[in-house]
Please model this.
Amino acid sequence: MEQSVRPEAIIADIYSQINEQRSIGQAPKEVLMNLKDYRLLDWYRNFLGDAENSAHEYLGQYEIFGLEILIEAVERPVVR
Model:
């Protein structure tokens, strides 16, 4: 049985990886994720909708937290 991942969990994982890299002095540039996770985040972004002065500015169509999203064959998102 396939386990469903919530978009909030993906976002939290990416945020945690970004903070971890920054805490050791690295500057992350991109996020690798599989197509399924990307589509889930894209759906979530559309679900939240666009609003002026939005609280979800961290999630763009092709970026998250200002980092470019690249589609790769990874099991879970990887910040690098």
Summary: The chain has a mean pLDDT of 91.
